[in-house]
Amino acid sequence: MIISTDTTHIVLLALLFFMFVIQAWYWLGYYRKAAYARPPARAPQAILPPLSVVICARNEAENLARFLPDVLRQDYPSFEVVVVNDCSEDNTFDVLGDLMKQYPHLKVSIIQKDPGFTHTKKLAMLIGIKAAGNDLLVFTDADCRPASPQWLREVAAAAASEKTDIVIGYGAYMPEKSLLNRYIRYETMFIAMQYFGMTMAGKPYMGVGRNLAYRKSFFFEKGGFGPHNHIMSGDDDLFVNRNSTAENCSLMTTHDSFTLSVASGSITDWMKQKRRHLSAAAYYRKEDKMRLFLEPFSRVSWYGLSVAMLVMLASWPVVALLAVTRLVMRSVILKKAAGTFNERQLWFISLFFDILAPFLTAFLYLTTRRKGKGRETWK
User: Fold this and answer.
1) Which of 25, 124, 194, 362 could form a disulfide with 84 if both were Cys (CB 3.0 to 4.6 A apart)?
2) Do residues 318 and 13 touch, judged by C-beta distance below 8 A?
3) Got the DSSP string for 220-284?
4) CA dihedral angle for residue 182, residue 187, residue 193, residue 196, rounded to 10 degrees
5) Three-class DSSP category at 24
6) Per-residue pLDDT of the chain (379 residues; tens, 9 = 90+)
């Protein structure tokens, strides 16, 4: 049976249009919500609840000395900072000891290294959670600093409702001049557009441990890390994925609510970190995995079909019209998102990253599954 060229063109054009519709659905239905997010009107709180900030650290002496004071000096009336020194072999112990002399609200728990016992970051998290003296827990990393002294006030405001059990924030990366740094920041912003937009659409699925809060009572009520205890990663997103609902999540969208982290300085380190994060995605809820798969699949298919039809000179005016429409839609929303997430420098280069990202992520995910990277150590 011979299929005519015209039939082939029609089929390809139909597939291209279908991929365009899927892309438009994501950009207009989810990413636009995140890009145009505005802080909700919140009444001033007469009494601010006491908070516990929990940080797990392994061989982070330099980062703790550099960033922990910014956490300890937050403009907030009642809070403590719990640092879990997890088997560190550098001078973390001394750095924390010096800081404890200056800041009486700093508490330290220590996990001693045992050659016969290995554990995931979740053990350190659990020890920090149990050591915390307050119900509202705030999580960040040792290589992070708050973007503002008002960070904890933003957390408290987002958690003010009795219905709110989980507060999701944005964890940005500090800008540097390298192309790798720009890609990491672009990808971080794009992923935030996904989980912010889906949370706003009533479909929360993840948060990042660099900027996350939930209630201690809620954590134990839900069985802690539950069935994901054995997984090396996912102390943040898997807990949110398993326990979040449209009603119990709140977002922090102001620049004062952001945190800033040190990005990986080498491709090897970044790939190792990315594989560790991707290993957790295999344990997401089925509907979340489908939504996260469909967008990059439709994007890759869109580019492939567009190139194929242009090479064949098939319906090129229609292809060009769809391409321009998608480009304008994407550019307008992404430019707005770059302002919302304070990443205005990334808008122009994002066109190249838009093509690269799904291929690179697919490669890392497939090699993660094949090599079983999820069982690496957390640091």
Assistant:
1) 124
2) yes
3) HHTTTTGGGTT-SS-TTHHHHHHH--TTTEEE--SGGG-EEEPPPSSHHHHHHHHHHHHHHHTTS
4) -110
5) helix
6) 444 567 888 888 999 999 999 999 999 999 999 999 988 776 677 689 999 999 999 999 999 999 999 999 999 999 999 999 999 999 999 999 999 999 999 999 999 988 777 788 889 999 999 999 999 999 999 999 999 999 999 999 999 999 999 999 999 999 999 999 999 999 999 999 999 999 999 999 999 999 999 999 999 999 998 888 777 777 889 999 999 999 999 999 999 999 999 999 999 999 988 888 888 888 999 999 999 999 999 999 999 999 888 888 667 888 899 999 999 999 999 999 999 999 988 878 888 899 899 988 888 888 875 554 444 455 6
Instruction: Identify any residues that bridge with 110 across adjacent strands, giving them in sequence order.
Output: 85
Distance (Å, whole) CA 44 – CA 166 = 20
Pairing of strands 212-215, 106-111: unpaired
Beta strands 166-168 and 249-251: pairing type? Answer: parallel
Looking up tokens 């740094």 gives: 181
- In the Cβ-directed half-sphere of 336, how many Cα atoms lie within 13 Å? 16
Question: Which residue is it, tokens 């699949």?
Answer: 297
- Please measure the distance between the N-terminal and C-terminal CA atoms of the chain and give it in whole angstroms: 58
Question: Would you call 344 exposed, middle or buried from its count of C-beta atoms within 10 A (0-12, 13-18, 19+)?
Answer: exposed
Give CA separation, 127 vs 90, 117, 190, in Å: 21, 16, 32
Nearest Cα neighbor of 71 from 3, 155, 6, 131 is 155
DSSP designation for 31: I
CA–CA distance, 314 with 13 (Å, rounded to integer) = 8
- Classify residue 247 as exposed, middle or buried by CB count within 10 Å of its CB (0-12, 13-18, 19+): exposed
- Global pTM value: 0.91
